[in-house]
């Protein structure tokens, strides 16, 4: 279990984290959402013992994050936001280097993770592109099969295919009962992977809820193409849904809560196309809480 109680790290000029309190339960996947500068990286560095507190207390599996950080590192896998890798090594040499540091012999978990990413570990790290380096770093995190995972912006630098591969890896770890904390700026990532979501704004926790609660409250936005402009106009007048934009036969429509009623209403119209429009974290936050994440 990860316990964070009244944690403060004040860098001045309103930078840092302030009076944070929440827990990540055993075998839970928790999403820490926020824009750049919200304090996500600061908190994960505190949890790993890389930075001491200005106030408060935090523990992982009852170990103090500052005083017992060495013990925490034995059972925790940490992916930093900015990765630095030994450029002269191959991927496989890098895995052996990590295994030596952790006094482990087996590279199996890291190699299987790299294979899942279709990554060539025989290449020198300096010859890898940024996405390949991120894949290698993620595979290295899994090398010692940690029971706790702290992942800072794990999907940054990954293409769409690699993001799907990463999500599958996390879902597998979830099924194996791992405790996972993901710091991300992507609402879609947190919604897909996490059991609960906490939202950070300027170092403060402004909301914490089950994903199911946030999903039910959040809105979905669709771009709908009708057979005729007359049909689109009829939908605007009769449907009762919030139309965000109208362009001839195409409407952008906002839907809150469950989709069942919306689909039922839509079946009464002549629709040619319907496309879901992903909502950014900032758009979701603004809709739910009436404010800007950067305020």
Automatic annotation (TrEMBL):
InterPro entries: AAA+_ATPase (IPR003593), ABC_transporter-like_ATP-bd (IPR003439), ABC_transporter_ATP-binding (IPR050763), P-loop_NTPase (IPR027417). SUPFAM superfamilies: P-loop containing nucleoside triphosphate hydrolases. Pfam families: ABC_tran (PF00005). Gene3D superfamilies: P-loop containing nucleotide triphosphate hydrolases. Residues 2-227 form the ABC transporter domain. One of its GO terms (molecular function) is ATP binding. Keywords: ATP-binding, Nucleotide-binding, Transport. It comes from the Bacteria. PROSITE patterns: ABC_TRANSPORTER_2. Belongs to the ABC transporter superfamily. This is ABC transporter ATP-binding protein. It comes from Hominisplanchenecus faecis.
């Amino acid at each position: 279990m990860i316990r964070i109680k009244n944690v403060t790290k004040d860098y001045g000029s309103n930078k840092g984290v302030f009076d944070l309190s929440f827990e990540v339960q055993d075998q839970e996947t928790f999403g820490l959402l926020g824009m750049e500068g919200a304090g996500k990286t600061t908190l994960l560095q505190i949890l790993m013992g890389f930075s001491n507190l200005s106030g408060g207390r935090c523990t992982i599996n009852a170990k103090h994050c500052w005083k017992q950080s060495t013990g925490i590192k034995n059972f925790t896998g940490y992916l930093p936001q900015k990765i630095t890798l030994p450029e002269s090594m191959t991927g496989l040499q890098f895995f052996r280097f990590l295994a030596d540091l952790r006094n482990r012999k087996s590279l199996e978990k890291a190699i299987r993770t790299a294979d899942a990413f279709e990554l060539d570990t025989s290449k020198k790290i300096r010859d890898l592109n940024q996405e390949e380096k991120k894949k290698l770093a993620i595979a290295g995190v899994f090398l010692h099969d940690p029971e706790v995972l702290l992942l800072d912006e794990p999907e940054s630098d990954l293409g769409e295919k690699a993001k799907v591969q990463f999500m599958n890896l996390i879902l597998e770890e979830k099924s194996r009962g791992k405790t996972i904390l993901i710091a991300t700026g992507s609402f879609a990532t947190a919604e897909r992977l996490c059991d609960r979501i906490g939202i950070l704004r300027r170092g403060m926790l402004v909301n914490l809820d089950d994903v199911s609660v946030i999903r039910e409250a959040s809105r979905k936005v669709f771009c709908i193409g009708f057979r005729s402009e007359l049909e689109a106009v009829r939908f605007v007048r009769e449907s009762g849904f919030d139309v965000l934009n109208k362009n001839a036969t195409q409407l952008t429509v906002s839907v809150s809560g469950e989709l069942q009623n919306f689909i039922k209403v839509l079946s009464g119209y002549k629709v040619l196309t319907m496309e879901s429009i992903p909502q950014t974290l900032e758009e979701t936050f603004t809709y739910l809480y009436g404010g800007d994440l950067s305020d």
